[in-house]
Design a protein that fits this description.
about 55% helix; single chain; Glycosyltransferase; globular; mainly alpha
């Protein structure tokens, strides 16, 4: 099984590299992903590039380099990071704390796992996130600078990064805030966010569950406090009960949503391979998390299209993928989010989500899960 998932992850990597990844503006030593396939001119010219999608391109490239280290993959990590910095124009940061947190996580993994140094960039992002903590305003950290919306998509990845850079006390405070302010007492799932004045946005997104699983597992590793393991137990069970059908993560979409289920799969794999503890509940959570990843990956693979010898993944892993064409309407940005193309399989985010899922399946199979 490990070899099978390695082959599928290889194919997913090859699909994104062949269809999407190009030099940025023809500059040597750069690699960035065109945000759609087939692309229109403004996309080929990187006029649209979507900061946080590219952060996940780097994270997926880290996965591939960890699965099978090669000098070419290691060089690609440096090229993607360099292109990100150049295309962002003003530096490593922007106005969105969730964007910055995703890039910080990818850069930290690049440095820790593959010795591709980004110390200054990581420290810059880390301090932006650390200083954004706003308990007096009702947070949490806000979604973006100057906003009164405090959400899981910002606090989740930010707290994982802060835990990994040695600020576990702040990561724990953020995890405790999400548990108290954003958890739905009925379903056990995490709401999207809350505005000043305790106005909840009750939307349930799969990636909100993923990032909370990530930080609670990270804290369970680092701190001898049982509440973090217990929260993982409960949330994995809630994900299986509410967001899956026959263990397959259901739903999905394009635009920004193309990444949501892949992020959940990434952190379910982290639970499966890294959650500490020897209790029956610990083992059950690890086993269930792995089973969701493997069932979702099998379904996504079975429902893919094969286009020029590479997979094209569907926006919803339980449904057959659709082939996009150049005449289909393209993804649009509105209010700080990217809306789906008419055929969501066109969006880079959807294909990155599929790649992320294949790498997650490889990770849990390599750990001995079947």
């Amino acid at each position: 099984m490990q070899e099978l998932w390695a082959q599928r992850a290889d194919a997913a990597e090859g699909a994104v590299l062949s269809r999407h990844v190009r030099r940025l503006w023809g500059l040597p030593g750069t690699a960035l992903a065109v945000v759609a396939w087939p692309p229109v001119r403004r996309e080929r010219a990187f006029l649209k590039w979507h900061y946080w999608w590219q952060a996940h391109l780097l994270d997926c490239a880290v996965d591939a380099a960890s699965r099978e280290p090669t000098s070419k993959r290691r060089r690609r990590l440096a090229k993607i990071a360099r292109a990100h910095r150049i295309r962002n124009i003003t530096g490593w940061t922007n106005n969105y704390y969730d964007d910055m947190a995703w890039l910080g996580l990818a850069l930290e993994r690049t440095q820790r796992l593959h010795s591709v140094g980004h110390r200054t960039a990581i420290q810059t992002i880390e301090m932006e996130l650390f200083d954004a903590w706003s308990p007096d305003a009702g947070g949490g950290i806000p979604w973006r600078r100057g906003d009164d919306f405090f959400n899981a998509p910002a606090n989740g990845p930010a707290s994982i990064l802060l835990a990994r850079t040695g600020r576990s006390w702040r990561a724990q405070a953020m995890a405790d805030w999400m548990d108290s302010a954003l958890k739905d007492p009925k379903s056990g799932l995490i709401f999207d966010g809350i505005r000043t004045g305790s106005v909840l946005d009750r939307a349930i997104f799969s990636y909100c569950q993923g990032v909370v699983l990530g930080v609670e597992t990270e804290l369970a590793i680092r701190l001898d406090e049982s509440r973090h393991r217990e929260r993982v137990h409960d949330l994995v069970a809630a994900v299986e009960a509410r967001l899956c059908r026959d263990l397959v993560i259901v739903g999905g979409g394009g635009g920004d949503g193309g990444l949501f289920d892949g992020i959940l799969a990434r952190y379910l794999a982290f639970v499966a391979t890294s959650l500490p503890g020897d209790s029956d509940e610990d083992q059950a959570a690890r086993t269930l998390a792995a089973a969701i990843v493997l069932a979702s990956a099998e379904s996504a693979w079975e429902n893919r299209l094969e286009v020029e010898d590479y997979p094209l993944f569907g926006a919803a892993w339980e449904s057959e993928a659709r082939l996009p064409g150049p005449s289909h309407s393209v993804a649009t940005s509105r209010g700080g989010t990217v809306r789906s193309s008419v055929v969501p399989e066109r969006d880079l985010s959807v294909q990155l989500g599929g790649w992320m899922l294949m790498e997650a399946a490889y990770t849990v199979s390599a750990a001995g899960f079947r």
